[in-house]
Amino acid sequence: xxxxxxxxxxxxxxxxxxxxxxxxxxxxxxxxxxxxxxxxxxxxxxxxxxxxxxxxxxxxxxxxxxxxxxxxxxxxxxxxxxxxxxxxxxxxxxxxxxxxxxxxxxxxxxxxxxxxxxxxxxxxxxxxxxxxxxxxxxxxxxxxxxxxxxxxxxxxxxxxxxxxxxxxxxxxxxxxxxxxxxxxxxxxxxxxxxxxxxxxxxxxxxxxxxxxxxxxxxxxxxxxx
Length: 225
Ligand SMILES: Nc1ncnc2c1ncn2[C@@H]1O[C@H](COP(=O)(O)OP(=O)(O)O)[C@@H](O)[C@H]1O
Ligand SMILES: [Mg+2]
Fold this sequence. Notes:
Rossmann fold; binds magnesium ion; binds adenosine-5'-diphosphate; six-stranded mixed beta sheet
């Protein structure tokens, strides 16, 4: 199996006022390229922090995070931002769509930020919305969509740059189970295309969509995985 992520001794300490909050405490983890990994664990165990570090949204306080032969911890801010925009698509529990923008405009946004010409953006957004079953909703604003539809728009947006890595932080946490299952089926489809998918979830049924599950406890991977 080709090595995707390799994390060694990863620590993350947040400072809040005058106190230090350890979120990750020496975490070791390997994720193969193309793997579908579920991450479980109690609230506060460091799941969201881990996902943010995997996606280069934040940096560890100590330790190493490699993707293939690239050590992300050695990247400059600009390099990390470029790496992230080319390789990572994110999904969040609260969808995080931009409310004044239509579904299509939300999907186009990552392309706009990369300077992709308007006609190509439009066509790509249309394709992606069709792929998630929302071709008919392209002109709708997020408030005019159900939760499940909003998450599917967010998934289309996450795919705009055709990233090899999809990171999803409790993407079904605000959805009922039937609607959540549609989103999980889409994640499974993306995994089937060879993408690396990391899914944080509280729900054992959702975790069952992954090929493997690890459990975090107190900022480390719990033994026995
Ligand atoms: N931005 C932040 N500033 C300060 N503390 C944080 C921040 N984000 C998370 N934490 C703390 O780090 C720990 C892990 O949080 P988090 O990664 O969000 O866990 P989980 O996603 O498993 O609930 C918690 O104690 C949390 O309060
Ligand atoms: Mg969290």
